[in-house]
User: What shape does this take?
Amino acid sequence: MPEATRRDRVFLVVVDDSPERRIALRYACLRVRNSGGRVALLRVLEPAGLTEWAGVGAMLEEERREEAEKLLSGLAAEVQEITGGLPILLIREGDARDELLALLEEDPRISILVLAAAAAGSGPGPLITALTGRYGTRLRVPMTVVPGGLDEDDMQRVTM
Assistant: This one.
């Protein structure tokens, strides 16, 4: 693979609150470290509910955004430690599935979507279910589904 192509690949990880997020992030980081590219982190904020006072709504929205920025900043340090490069940080507001699909359509830099399945057997999760079902035709990039139960040795083996 030409060096420019390796460097231009972007592995997108959805930063939700699931425990398997760490597996997806680790996989993407190791793939970038071992084969080139860059990691992008997407955090989708659910829309704030209606509130009677606009000031309260604005304050709550600002707090949620600050929390998202703090979370992404911490993960960015982790990504940089593993890959040696800074990730692309993205924050959007809306439905996670809809915002993810919109981002994939809008951003040509994204080459691979990395999601992890739950390890506990509770099903693949709503995003994986949606993207392998009725919304699968809207994907314009390959999707890698990482088993949520991979241990570190397996993770190293499959990312070489």
Summary: The CA atoms of residues 65 and 134 lie 30 Å apart. The chain has a mean pLDDT of 88. The chain has six helices and five strands. The first strand starts at residue 10 and ends at 14.
